[in-house]
Amino acid sequence: MIVQNREAMDQRAENIIGILLRTGVTISALVVLFGGILYLAHWWSAPTHYQTFRSEPGDLRYIPGIVRESIAFNPAGIIQLGLLLLIATPIARVAFSVWAFAEERDWLYVTVTLIVLGLLLFSLAGPHS
Amino acid sequence: MNTLEFVVVLWFGSLLAGFLGSLTGLGGGVVIVPLLTLVFGVDIRYAIGAALISVIATSSGAAAAYVKEGFSNIRVGMFLEIATTLGAIAGAFIAFYLPIHAIAVIFGFVLAYSAYLSFRPPSPARDAGQPDKLATRLRMDAAYPTPNGLRQYHVRGVPAGFAVMFIAGILSGVLGIGSGAVKVLAMDRAMRLPFKVSTTTSNFMIGVTAAASAGIYLNRGYIDPGLAMPVVLGVLVGSLIGSRLLAGAKARVLRIVFAIVIAFLAIEMIFNGLTGRI
What we know:
The structure holds two protein chains of two kinds. By secondary structure, chain A is mainly alpha-helical. Chain A has helices at 2-43, 63-71, 75-103, 107-125. In chain A, helix 2 (63-71) crosses helix 3 and helix 3 (75-103) runs antiparallel to helix 4 (107-125). A two-stranded antiparallel ribbon of chain B has the order 1-2. Chain B is globular, with a radius of gyration of 18 Å. Chain B is mainly alpha-helical. Chain B has helices at 3-24, 29-39, 44-67, 74-97, 100-117, 133-137, 158-175, 180-190, 195-219, 225-244, 249-274, and strands at residues 142-146, 149-153. The longest helix of chain B is centred in the C-terminal third of the chain and has 26 residues, at 249-274. Chain B starts with a helix and ends with a helix. Chain B is built from eleven helices and two strands; from the N terminus they run ααααααββααααα. The chains are: A mainly alpha, B mainly alpha. Chains A and B meet through helix 1, helix 3 and helix 4 of A and helix 1, helix 3, helix 4, helix 9 and helix 10 of B.
């Protein structure tokens, strides 16, 4: 009986995760598309420069800078914001799983999920130079 | 090529990569890096940054569809994500100290291995077997839907699976791929999960693994908006079309064709890496 209950809760959590992932991907794709249109309107005739590597400017590398550039309506900043939302989507899924496991009083997996969440936030927070 | 032409051509190329990747189950990410470096002459560091982002997009998109079917084992997935995220972070750091020629060569070998794996038939259905002590303690045993109702299975080989997952994470962080083939290998062969459970759980994990290294790549300035934009949008649309089409007998032929293409790309990557052209 307990097992069945657990599976029902797992199923419910998985449905919510499905909606969460789909919403995250859709929103970020739309933001990237919007930024991309602005980017092309501005830079369409410029030559490309991807053959040689030079690191992106600081404002396009960290969350505060990306948000600042997006508010200033910089096309590259808006694309970067969309990419950031995309990176945040699986992180949001993990964060939701912490809550879902806590709801089931499954403290072992709350701990496991918190470790994963911590690693992801460490990676995103930076700076890693 | 000016930026507009570059974006349009790259968008179509990425669409095709995403389409074939999802139709054949090999993932679009593995061909993005060779496409960018070999065809468009893009620096491999930018290519890996863009590929990682597209891997997150396709994995999250596909996982959204899979979770509802009830195949993926979220406990197994979450536990192994400790190993893959640790590996992915380590891999992203390792990548900065590796010469780019070495990255190209490693990429080639992993590509070749993925192509080889896709020729192997999936493991046949197994009986549940004996419960494993560690897996039981970690509450990993579960059931999955079959035409004849739910079927129970026992998970085993947790330490071996964990170790292989750590390696899968490193590969993902160094190469910007989902390393789904290695993840499936860990769950199917080492942990004895049913094949369908392995593949869907692997897909579920790929996005989290890629996100772990993507953050570091973003911080290091390897993710370029002008390049990532057409790649992500192309791969996403391509994989959506691919997953809408029914996977039937034709998908098998396509899978073989795609595996041969991947094998050629692998040789090309190794050759270019060794001769210092990448």
